[in-house]
Amino acid sequence: MAQGYRIGVIAPNLDGEYYGRLLPHIHEAVKQRNSELIVIRVADDELGMNALEEPVSFELVDAWIVILPSASPKFLKMLSASKKPYVCIGFPSPCPRGRSVLVSNRASMKQLVLHLIDHGHRSIAFIGQTQQYDLYERYIGYLDALTERGIDADERLVVRTMGNLLESGMEATERLFASGVTFTAIAAGTDLSALGAIDYLNTHGYSVPGQFAVTGFDDIHQAKLNYPPLTTVGQPFVEMADKAVAEAFDLIAGRGPEADELFIPAELVVRTSCGCEEEEKLTPQQYFDFHRYNLSKMRIALHHVTVNNYKVTQRLIAATKDERIHISKLLWGNFHWGFLALREVDGQGGNRLVVSQTFSKKGDPLPPEGLEVPLERFPPVGYLPKSTGPGGDDCIVLHPIRTELQNWGYLVLAGPLDEMGDFVADDLSRHSFTILAVALERELLLKQTRSMAEKLEVVSRTSNDGIWDWDLAAGTIDWTIRAHHILGGVADRLLVTPQKFIELVHPEDQQMLRLAFMRPFQKDRPIQVELRFKTMEGHYLWLYLAGDVLYDESGVPVRMIGSITDVTDKKMNEERITQLAYQDALTGLPNRLRFKDQLREAMAERDLDGNRLAVLMIDLDRFKIVNDTLGHQVGDLLLQRASHMLRDCVGDEDIIARLGGDEFIVLLRKVENVDDVFAVTQKMLDALEQPFILEDQPFYLSASIGASLYPAEGEGTEVDPDTLIRDADLAMYHTKENGGNRLEIYVPAFSSKRVERFNMETGLRYAQERGELTLHFQPQISLSTGKVYGAETLLRWNAPGGKTIQPGEFIPLAEETGLIVPIGQWVLEQACEECKRWIRAGMPQLVISVNISALQFQQEDFPDIVRRVLKRTGIEPYNLCLEITEHTAVQNMEHSVKMLGQLIDIGVKIAIDDFGIGQSSLYWLKKLPVHIVKIDPTFILNMIEDSDDDAIAKAVIEMSHNLGLSVTAEGVETEHQLLRLQQLQCDRIQGYYTGRPMTSDQFIAYFLEIHGGMGM
């Protein structure tokens, strides 16, 4: 067995689920070979480090193990040039000479995704930081699985994150939902990202694995403890460590590699988050023991965290009592021996390290302070504790000490690796590294002219952001580097004295600041003040300034030390929160809350002076059509312009607010009588009649307005703001139901009308499931053959109690409430089912016509809905005709042309209904891909007596025929109308003369009677 070698490990951290599980196994494998271990810890976000760059310990180490890309390209290049053996863990060696121990990330992720596909999932999302090698390999494995099963990769299902922790998983899942992409499973690059995804899903009401399956990668402790337990891939830490150490010793011995890259298989760990039952079957006692053990570990870990945090605080207090911080007074966890070596440059420009401070808890010998050691032979092995020697239980840890100003040197520690390091990231010694680095920087900048203990003591009571130090005797202020950054460079030139600082404070805040500076001289009254400060660029920052006075041994105040914090964002957020609480974000108008406050004040004023006020509720008519056809962006612009126009119609003291959607509310603070209300209302209606030009198109609005007065005539009950608003709302609805574009003043009778409408809406919501909706069918007859062409589907509502509610009453309500969408789909499905009955009854060529509402037509997936209905009912596309009104078709021509084209591609027929009463023109018919034009009944009713109606019908028929379209005339009630339409060569008719609306069974009998019992 090889022995007596020194193995160097370069790692970002010593603890956590990855390093905390891998490093102890590496140490154990080195011990088994009677060798010693040096670990160089390089990652420290606070100190701005992420990779080793210099050849520290280069001549001492026989072989290197690099965990993840923690050695810079510069260091690896030096390794390659020196012929030093090295092994990379978790990433491919960038140099040909290095070996790599890699986990089979790609194959394992592929196996995991195939497992999800076998569960029936085909829309599987991937979340992870794909810039990292192992995460990128897992992403490629995800793609491999999709390719193997013939699933097209959808880039929308891939969310690339900046990290791999819980927050990254939560953010990625939120982004998936926000994108609108459909997914049923998530394959996360790490367990923590997977747990974050599960947490997001659970907190938003989704179940895992009921609605979504989630898998991870790494098999961390939390994976098994989570609910549900996480399906994942276990990292083979023992095999990785053993193989990396074995490879290092093979390279030392000169044994050639079998392969440059050695892949360690990773095991698929199936639990329940994917939808499986756990493969590992445990008895109830085993479950109890398992959770009791892990809860015990968690309790111990949390106890360690609590105790260590307390120790950090206590050590910091102890360390800052002296002029300089000594490393023996900082927290180093399990490490019992160490020393600090500061960098010096010798006469030849070479680097050397000089021992500056030492400590030993067990009495082990220490290197003498002042000992000089070359960087390449650092640390001095002759002074290291025996416990770190070959086969020893301790290892040596090197940590660079660095700040923005310079590279200070290294801290060397000796001790065992923390046994809890794999369960929780609790290496609080990293705080000591940061404290030590900051202390060295401050000692250099301030030239040890002030006590670090005093400064840190004050900072611990205030805010550790930018630090200021006011020498009361000299009358000057010093600022730290961070304070310079906050103040935008002003401190470099102007802020030498307190007066200079005060001069740059906003004039309104200067007196407050002067008073604040006087408080610390009174006992227990430190400075705590927020103020505005002018920067070099001329704009103001909000600063939080805190501080206190320091006294000498005689009790004389000598210095005032404190901190400054940039709280500009906090103040802006406070203002924004206040704004959001009282202001509508879109229009800038007050919102409901602000309006009610103003209304309450105005009512109190009217109670005192005896005058009256009015509340106007305004609802923009037809606004929903703009939103549905041109989109919300154009709709928002229209709302903004309408709000400005309405604002111009009221007085300066009056209030107009937006309640949401297209509803506005107005407070007229003082009115003499009802005529004043009508005058303001008419001004608004006249203004809205002016065209709004949006996207080069004119839009015309009108409004339904309701008003309530306070106090009302003969009012005997107490009225509050909510009652006034409700009454104005009832009056507005009464206006809308009667055609809109005018004002109604509230009267008590409106309340009962509103109750009736509410009852109808409630009944309509349940009419479908109660079986109260039925279909009737009105025949359509071919004038050239006299045969039945098909039938139009008509909806009827048989309400409880035997009352039949006419479509003209409930269809507008269904459209307004959105109920028309599910009702319309039910009508489409039932009509196609009835058509299927007709075909079975010997009527194969009949066409069933179904009216489509504007809301249904705006659904992007409406063509898919039609396809599914045809497939489910089994009728052919040519058996179905979809009717849309002329008004719906021309609202958004681009959308209509696209949607109708998709429907025609399916093979269904398209009819334009109610043609002639809207914007009828040859232009529209030329642009729209349709088959049939239906003449509105209003032109058929009087066509015999009215030559204008006859001329319109004739023109529509001729124009449609010239475009290759067929024509159906609706509302035919007399023989004269039929004969005239035959003369005009109309294709088909529909009306009471040839057949009233009838049930499906009646229609079958009607057809068989006309066709003599024979099919068409």
From TrEMBL:
Keyword flag DNA-binding: yes
Q: Which residues form the PAC domain?
A: 527-579
Has UniProt tagged this entry with the keyword rRNA-binding? no
| Occurrences of domain EAL (ranges) | 757-1011
* Location of the GGDEF domain: 611-748
Query: Which SMART domains does the entry mention?
Result: EAL (SM00052), GGDEF (SM00267), PAC (SM00086)
InterPro entries listed in its UniProt record: Biofilm_reg_signaling, EAL_dom, EAL_sf, GGDEF_dom, LacI/GalR-like_sensor, Nucleotide_cyclase, PAC, PAS
Q: Which Gene3D superfamilies match?
A: 3.30.70.270, 3.40.50.2300, EAL domain, PAS domain
**What does the UniProt keyword field contain?**
DNA-binding, Transcription, Transcription regulation
Which NCBIfam families does the record associate with it?
Answer: GGDEF, sensory_box
Q: What is this protein called?
A: EAL domain-containing protein
